[in-house]
Amino acid sequence: MSDQSQAAQIEVSEIHWLMDMFQSVDVGLVVLDDQYRIQVWNGFMENHSGRSPYDVRNQSLFQTFPELDETWLRQKTDPVFVLKNRAFTIWEQTPHIFKFKNYRPITSVAHFMYQNATFIPLTNTMGAVTHICIIIYDVTDVAVSKLELEEVNTELKRLSQTDRLTNLNNRGFWEECLKKEFQRQRRTKNTSSLLIFDIDHFKHVNDNYGHAAGDEAILHLAKLLKQNLRETDIGGRYGGEEFAVILPETDARHAAIFAERVRRSVEAASVMFNEVEIKFTVSLGIAEFHHDFNSHQKWIEAADSALYVAKSNGRNQVRAYRHQA
Description:
Layout: H1 3-24, E1 28-33, E2 38-41, H2 43-49, H3 53-56, H4 61-64, H5 70-83, E3 87-89, E4 115-123, E5 129-138, H6 140-161, H7 171-188, E6 192-199, H8 202-209, H9 211-228, E7 234-239, E8 242-248, H10 252-268, E9 271-273, E10 276-278, E11 282-288, H11 296-312, E12 318-320
Parallel strand pairs: 11-12
Antiparallel strand pairs: 1-2, 1-5, 3-4, 4-5, 6-8, 6-11, 7-8, 9-10
Helix pairs in contact: 8-9, 9-10
């Protein structure tokens, strides 16, 4: 065999294993010409799309896959043609380019494959970009793990801010919100009100029906409060049977309307516990923000003092704090 024949055999052999690697590599390889016609379509793309290289060759990418976001993809690839620079995209920006179903059992919670992609310019002998290669990476495992971790962290954050019994904001989170509202009011000179209320004669509920009944009464009151809260209101459990609501952009007069609505809904309702009907009322104190308050704690004390007046005057009523200059 001549040296020329041996060289030809070696070249054919190299081409064979290069093509074999190209078809079996675990990434998608797509080559497009400057008209976005498909020139190369490897085994990964065939397996996940169900389209063979013979079906798609010289076909328009956007006509073959009409679900592709053509505007977005052109914005990513046009600079590759013009500037001869690589471009990249990650799943956090766009979950996928090609909407392939996810078949991995480990990440079966994902219905579609999450993808990263690299866009590579391909030049001719004159240095002009005539084609681009898109490399598709399946990053579903990484994406699902990150999303699950984010969900866990979000849930942990929610639990750290939530009262376990009532599912309202707990004392720590609610008071942090009040501090922020206090600072906002000092800056903007707007108006907001604070409402504090509790169950009248709560000790009698515990003594007569047991602490489980007391918890049921607190839970019942929390549900009634949620039904009355507006989107901007921040309600929370202040402690024991005591609750608090921050009412942004609300003066004392309108806060009293809100408080009276809560009072009436509690008075009209009842709690069934062990086939026994338990009825109770609430007393409510309101304090509109005043610039003489030098801390959010003074604001709380003002609302508490209004609540004390409501208790002293017979309970089951709303009282507003009157500022003394």
